[in-house]
Predict the structure.
Amino acid sequence: MRTTLLRNTVLTAAGFAATTAGIAGPAIAAHAAPAQKTTQVSTDRKGHGERELDVRYEAQPNFYYCGPAATRNALSVLGKNIDVDAMAKEMGTTENGTNSINDITPVLNKETGKHYRSVEIKNSNADDKQTDTLRTDIVRTIDDGRAVVANIAGTTTDTDGNTHSFEGGHYISVVGYRDNGHTVTIADSANPNTASYHISIDNLADWIATRGYSAS
């Protein structure tokens, strides 16, 4: 696994399947079935200190399209349905993946007409200030009706105790929060069997560490 800041090193097809071994259900095949591509991830406003956006979820069609797929899922909360091949071309995605969050931020700006910025977490583990900044950024972006896209790497545990492991790197969308942002909702294109899960902001910040995210 490369440790270059914000780098998304993508696994081989075999390695991609191996990263999902800790997730319930099989790794996504090269092409998801149509029924899997229309899974609804979340609903709209819940109440004070809690909000989730309505995601028209699609799984990624291959092992290296996580960047375009995460961006497509993020944009779907605005009712947009942009072809992942077109986004992959714009991001410079290859079988080596999408290079960094800096390749995704311009696409979000273009497609939303609103300001997104790339935020780096340079440490190997996020400190309290970086974690709090992430929480604030997520709440602000989601309250504006938009999703966050994050470049993550390594292994984490969700609030149900399930493990999610992407040692070679991955992109996810953050589409909701509760408890004033101390817990967030993930839309994950890797596996339609685990399209949505919740994770603590502390675990998410450490998952992003050495890489970055795109938020308002």
